[in-house]
Fold:
Amino acid sequence: MPEYDVAIIGAGPGGYVAAIRAAQLGLSTAVIEKDNVGGLCLNWGCIPSKALLYSAEVANLFRRGPEFGIGFKDLTLDMGVAIDRSREIVARFVSGVESLLKQNRVTHIRGVGRISGPNTIEVQPSAETVQAKNIIVATGGATRSLPHVAIDGDRVITSREALEMRTPPASIIIVGGGATGVEFAYFYRAYGAEVTIVELLEHLLPNEDEDVSRHLERTFGAAGIRARTRTRVEEISVHDSGATVAVAGRDGHDELDAERVLIGVGFAPASANLGLEEAGVVLEHGWVNVDDFCRTNVPNIWAIGDVTGRLLLAHVASQQGVTAVEKIAGQDPAPLDYNQMPRAVYCQPQVASLGLTEAQARERGHAVVSGRFPFRANGKAMALGETDGFVKIVADRSTGEILGHHMIGYNVTELVGEASLGNTLETTHVELGHAVHAHPTLSEALKEAALAVRGEAIHFYRNQARPSS
Structure:
């Protein structure tokens, strides 16, 4: 049997990117995948959900037609067509990834892989044995539920079922106010559903800067999306017409009724039955423990993506894959810095961030100063009729180092790449403020927010910079 330099279990955004990069570096490479290439992100996550969110955005834009001098009669919304479009996009993307693997001479093996020896993977159901000098585990994660909550795929669903549901529910309760929860809240509200989000922590998007989270809550409230934060789900019961969610929160106990309930409380590692423990790989609550180059404690076994639990984002998995194979190939990649990984949420207004929140920066001992610039003062945003939101820059007062970029507004996920590049080059808020941005563009808000750190924003007046208490 052939021996590969690298064999990868899983062909999601970590696995297939690692395979292609390994092939570019001259390593003989195989990737083992039990389902379609692209993993959860491409097939049942990032790509189809963003297609649906754009359909929701178009629906909302049509409702605003008179604002732009556009009139029409009898607006109809067909969510089934939006679902079909999303699946067609997925199919094209899957085909494209398969072609890339073939073009790069990566061996694509269909089946379930399990580590059976120091350099051996058994593949089922074919019983094929794959030999490899290095094994990369890229099996991702699986949707997590709540204790004692049964997901029946009908009344109580996950994002997987939601991405196939062809008609909007009259009402839906979404458990979890993270990225998945707020994105589906925006989507279903655009199609007319009554939406309630139940979140255990203080705010929606609890990992984001508090200013951003509060702003999103206000915007959602104005759109008719109810948020019950600091609220715990105690029980979900299903009946013929829907489901009842028993909750306990700051206002005591309550029961919420809806046609459907969507569970969006995160993911668990897909690390079971891989032979990892038998191989001596250290796991922490099922997550594969890796260093900053994605090495496990076993010299020839590596792990990337959601299964590591480091930061469950597709682009993080891809970068982990590149870092791992470059290290395998004898190159000298930079260690991964998860504080510098961009984060993006695709409801409207969108949320994008990179680096530390203001609270995190204070906790780490920084003397913090921040600047904000609202999109209502941005010419391009006004021209688009999309003035909701702001850009916030968090910086170190003494050095000028930008510690965090935080944005909420129309299509701000397209602006976070500049933040990533700036932090890679160790750009200060003064340098970002000096950088010329084309006018009129949304990106000018980044420049103005950087200027606002020293009270120098041109198109928005503030007496002085905002030192943090």
Remarks:
- The chain has three domains: 3-142+268-338, 156-265, 349-467.
- The chain has a mean pLDDT of 95.
